[in-house]
């Protein structure tokens, strides 16, 4: 409208999204570094750092791997998101988005495959637990993890107590000299609420008894079945946790991509402004040409006595503009 000036707002990087992404990732970064430090400390205590081959000697899962892998991934993601947001670095922000997107799709694919191939997953879980049962006494961290799982889910072995025949200390062969022969770990035992001191020998010789008699001393259900039952009973909570994690990942990706778009818009606007500045201030206009033409700068071009413009007016930028010729009238 006439008489009113239209104001155009130039693109800028949103401070709220930038510093929210920075704050979120710095917490993520610190937690990842803490997990990684705990994992490396645990390996140092077990002498793994001085003997790397010990990583492959263990037949089962070393729980420290969980801390190292999760801590490493969190540290890398936190670093990329934190520094990328603070320094407005599009490369780090894109790396953060792509890496987080890959993790999201990997989780999604794992969930779909686990739902479709339930029987195969169950068999693999049985095999995984049995491999760790074999290595129960080989690593203290693995031993504590198995004991925790058996106590939490009130189970024993993958399918039942007889799975402990796979362990050289608990098998029932006549050649086994161990005192734990035909027994199970204390974590399989049915705890007495009135018992103040933990009886670590409660599982000795228990598998020599009949199955009905065993039920009064130990848990006879397998951990795979108990885990499936726990998932069914807590399906809403488990689904809510996974959906919450997925939403956080999607939110982080969108926030990083939005920040990248803002940075690109500001750069494009700056480039356009720079080009306009060069064209406006470095390109000679007609009035600038006439101002260097001589004392008769207000005369009409072609009037008698008009001195020709100097070459400086037209060749001051490296000869980009041709020298005009003026004829006397």
UniProtKB/TrEMBL annotation:
Gene Ontology MF terms in the entry: enzyme binding
Compartment list: Cell membrane
InterPro entries, per database record: Tetraspanin/Peripherin (IPR018499), Tetraspanin_CS (IPR018503), Tetraspanin_EC2_sf (IPR008952)
Top-level taxonomic group: Eukaryota
Primary subcellular site in the record, as a coarse category: membrane
UniProt-listed GO biological process terms: establishment of protein localization to organelle; intracellular protein localization; regulation of membrane protein ectodomain proteolysis
Keyword Membrane attributed: yes
Keyword NADP attributed: no
Membrane topology note: Multi-pass membrane protein
Pfam families in the record: Tetraspanin
Transmembrane segments: 20-44, 64-86, 98-117, 235-256
GO cellular component entries: plasma membrane
Keywords from the named record: Cell membrane, Disulfide bond, Glycoprotein, Membrane, Transmembrane, Transmembrane helix
SUPFAM superfamilies to which the protein is assigned, alphabetical: Tetraspanin
Family the UniProt entry places it in: Belongs to the tetraspanin (TM4SF) family.
Record's protein name: Tetraspanin 17
Lineage, highest ranks first: Eukaryota, Metazoa, Chordata, Craniata, Vertebrata
Gene this chain is encoded by: TSPAN17
């Amino acid at each position: 409208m006439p008489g009113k000036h239209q104001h155009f707002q130039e693109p800028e990087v949103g401070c709220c999204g930038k510093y929210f992404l920075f704050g979120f990732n710095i917490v993520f970064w610190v937690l990842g570094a803490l997990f990684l430090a705990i994992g490396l400390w645990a390996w140092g205590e077990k002498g793994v750092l001085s003997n790397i081959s010990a990583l492959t000697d263990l037949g089962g899962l070393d729980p420290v791997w969980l801390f190292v892998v999760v801590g490493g991934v969190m540290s890398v993601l936190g670093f990329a998101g934190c520094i990328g947001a603070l320094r407005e670095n599009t490369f780090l922000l894109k790396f953060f988005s792509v890496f987080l997107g890959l993790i999201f799709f990997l989780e999604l694919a794992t969930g779909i495959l686990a739902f479709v191939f339930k029987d195969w997953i169950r068999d693999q879980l049985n095999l995984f637990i049995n491999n760790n049962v074999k290595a129960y006494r080989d690593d203290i961290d693995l031993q504590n993890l198995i004991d925790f799982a058996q106590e939490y889910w009130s189970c024993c072995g993958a399918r039942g107590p007889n799975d402990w025949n796979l362990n050289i200390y608990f098998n029932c062969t006549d050649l086994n000299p161990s005192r734990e022969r035909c027994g199970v770990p204390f974590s399989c035992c049915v705890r007495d609420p009135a018992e103040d001191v933990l009886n670590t020998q409660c599982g000795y010789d228990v598998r020599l008894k009949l199955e009905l008699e065993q039920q009064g001393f130990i848990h006879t259900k397998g951990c795979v079945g108990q885990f499936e039952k726990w998932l069914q009973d807590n399906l809403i909570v488990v689904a809510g946790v996974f959906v919450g994690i997925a939403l956080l990942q999607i939110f982080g990706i969108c926030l990083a991509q939005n920040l990248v778009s803002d940075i690109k818009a500001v750069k494009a606007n700056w480039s356009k402004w720079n080009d306009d500045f060069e064209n406006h201030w470095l390109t000679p206009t007609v009035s600038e040409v006439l101002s260097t033409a001589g004392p008769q700068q207000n005369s009409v071009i072609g009037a008698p006595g008009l001195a020709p413009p100097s070459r400086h007016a037209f060749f001051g930028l490296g000869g980009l503009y041709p020298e005009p010729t003026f004829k006397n009238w």
